[in-house]
Amino acid sequence: MKWTKKELATVAGGLLLVFCFGIANNTLGFYMLQITEEFGIIRTAFTLYYTMLAGMGMVSAPFFGKIYNRIDTRKLMIGGGVAALIAYCCISFANGMAVFYIVGGLFGLLQSAISMSLTAYILVRVFGERSGTPMGICMAGTGVVGLVFGLVIPPLVESFGWRFCYRLQGVVWLVLAIIAGMLIGNVNEGRMEENRQESGKPQAQLTTAQVFRLPVFWILIIAGMLMNFSALFSQHMVPYAVELGIDPITAGRIFSFYSIWGIIGKILLGWLFNRLQIKHATMLANISLVLGLLLFSRGQYPVMLVACAFIGFGLAESLMAIPIINRAVFGAENFAFINGLTAIGTGIGAAFGSNIWAAFYDVTGSYALAIPAFSAIYLLVGVLYWIVLSMPRPKM
Fold it and tell me: What is the pTM of this model?
């Protein structure tokens, strides 16, 4: 596959935007122990912050899905970086969870819209049917963040505290957003051929009412919700490893090892999306995650490292499956709109998934029961994706 310079710049910029998403979503586990101990709260109370962050993103996603093709994406990226810096600085001065909840709710309106969702829109806009591999490369950015921050943040938290690290994350987000804006520019300046034609024929745009009448849409909503319930294990990997007898620094290294496989897994899954039927690729990812969770729960350090490889590939689906399926089922012309609507399901999963994992610990004193429960759920997600991709495409 040969890419133009503009396409290469787009992938590089998209990768940086996904770095930003990883900063917001892949680092909570590094702060959980210190913040809960400082504030004297249970873990569910802390993860409620992420509920606010993800929940408000779910609310705003349909709105951004409608306006993405009418706004300057460069300005959105850079403006989002400024908003992130302000949000993280505000949180760093918190003396209780109230500030986390308020800022998390406000910043949550923008968080995904200026990072992950925007990246998916840009890639489909530029690459069209070839977006599988670029999507995999960009989504690997969450793994890069986990790898780097897994090595850097735990020692920084121990030495300088979580407040310093939150301010550092805000600065990093702004710098990355500025560079991404310069690399990608405004993709809406010209209308891409892939977004107005499918197999040489104009595509019709669906209305909200039409979408809500489609069974395939509601199956995707349920699948996306259940998927993110299970996928947020990544936020509890470090605390779970500590529960299993691993010291915090080594647990951070385990997370970094998982992140390496997360990078490889996303690139591999993106490649498989372009090479296999999508339903076959997603089912492989589902089975891989379940196997990884079961191995990780053994609590033996070498086995946990092996488990990270399976988990890294399996969790790649949580970021990539819905956008790829949306484009395959509904077409490029409807992608931004549909992706915004299906974010309702993934948003619910993201908003409450981490809380559910934390609730298992708060109620039982362990994550042990969560492993078989979420393994079964993730297998169900694979079945639902298989059903969606076996159904006839909706009539436009």
Answer: 0.71
